[in-house]
Specification:
By secondary structure, this protein is an alpha+beta fold. It has two domains: 145 residues, no CATH class; 164 residues, Histidine kinase-like ATPase, C-terminal domain (Heat Shock Protein 90, 2-Layer Sandwich). The strands form two sheets. The chain has a five-stranded mixed β-sheet, covered by helices on one side. Helix 2 crosses helix 5 and helix 5 runs antiparallel to helix 6. The longest helix has 71 residues.
Length: 352
């Protein structure tokens, strides 16, 4: 007989974190309830006895309410109604279970039926505490869900901007390449054929990347190689390039078309305006914190007043930063700094 995998029954990590936060907050709130009951009604007993009963009842109420909220038909209800149902069911259930477990663990006879002054106070405290804790837990979960929805919306905006960027980049590059091809067909047919081959490779890679939000470094570097080969044929002999991708990183996943704007920036602002030859080197390396990608050029370099910690106004660079922030959070970064001995170095860091 096949034994089911126990991992299939484990709740997701975010659910466990929410449940742990709920229990911790409940335990702290029960300390306040015990202190108030001890000060307001000294006849109920010592603070430690009140704390014991308060913690048992409070934790059972929280557990019961949480379990009710996990029922499929409860999860289909609107949030306020689901929270109300969890209160109506969870508070009586948690009160009975908490009182019974508290007496049992103390080795005393279980006394639940009948109303005494102490029990009336306990019921009132349970209702107030259970309602307050459940409301705060519901509010926290709602704020968390809204934050997740905002994050998803931001990612969708960034991906829409990526498609717009592709729509801007590819026709511009295509028209310039076709204009060069027209001049090469008669005078340099071999070079024209080579440019056509690279253009086909580039367009095939760009089309594949447009259908996915992510790609592998191998595919990203193949697209860059085709693009840089086309540009080197256009700018020959003013442009040289080198791509360094270790075999161990070839299948590493990155956002699609992440490095293309950086390479285009290096050519447009560094190599083309420069008198003489220039070089571009694209490097990928693994670090202790994750992945590091570099685009280094020997072009004109950054202006003297450039601040490496301040965002650039370039649309391509702003887009790269926005995509990194949307997909990987604040731990991902793009930094521009002077390249030694000349040019610009763009460094992308992606957390593991």
């Amino acid at each position: 007989m096949r034994v089911p995998d126990s991992r299939a029954f484990r709740p997701p990590p975010e659910t466990l974190r929410r449940l742990l936060r709920l229990f911790v907050f409940t335990a702290l709130f029960c300390v306040l309830v015990a202190a108030v009951l001890t000060l307001a009604m000294p006849s109920l007993g010592s603070f430690w006895r009140n704390l014991w009963f308060s913690e048992c009842i409070g934790l059972w109420v929280s557990a019961s309410g949480w379990l009710v909220l996990q029922l499929p038909w409860i999860r289909r209800l609107p949030d306020p109604i689901g929270a109300l149902v969890s209160l109506v069911v969870g508070i009586p259930m948690g009160y009975v279970l908490g009182y019974a477990s508290a007496y049992s663990l103390l080795g005393e006879p279980v006394q639940i039926v009948g109303l005494t002054r102490a029990r009336e106070a306990a019921i009132a405290a349970t209702v107030l505490a259970g309602g307050f804790v459940t409301y705060l837990a519901w509010l926290r979960n709602r704020l968390s869900d809204e934050a997740a929805a905002r994050s998803k919306a931001q990612r969708l905006v960034v991906e829409a901007e990526l498609r717009m960027l592709r729509a801007q980049l590819e026709p511009h590059m295509l028209f310039n390449t076709l204009a060069n091809l027209r001049s090469l067909v008669d005078d340099e047919p071999a070079q024209a054929r080579q440019m056509i081959d690279q253009l086909i490779t580039y367009l095939r890679s760009a089309l594949a990347g447009s259908r996915s939000e992510t790609t592998t470094l191998r595919a990203e570097f193949a697209q860059l190689a085709a693009y840089l080969e086309i540009m080197s044929l256009r700018l020959d002999p003013r442009l040289r390039y080198r791509l360094e991708l270790p075999d161990a990183l070839q299948q590493t996943t990155v956002p699609a078309m992440l490095l293309q704007p950086l390479v285009e920036n290096a050519i447009k602002h560094g190599i083309e305006p420069k008198i003489g030859c220039g070089a571009i080197t694209v490097t990928a390396r693994a670090t202790d914190g994750g992945l590091e990608l570099e685009v280094a050029d020997t072009g004109l370099g950054l202006p003297p007043d450039h601040d490496p910690d301040r965002s650039s106004n370039s649309y391509g660079l702003v887009h790269v930063r926005d995509r990194l922030r949307a997909l990987h959070g604040a731990q991902a970064s793009l930094r521009l700094q002077p390249n030694k001995p000349q040019g610009t170095l763009a460094t992308v860091r992606i957390p593991a």
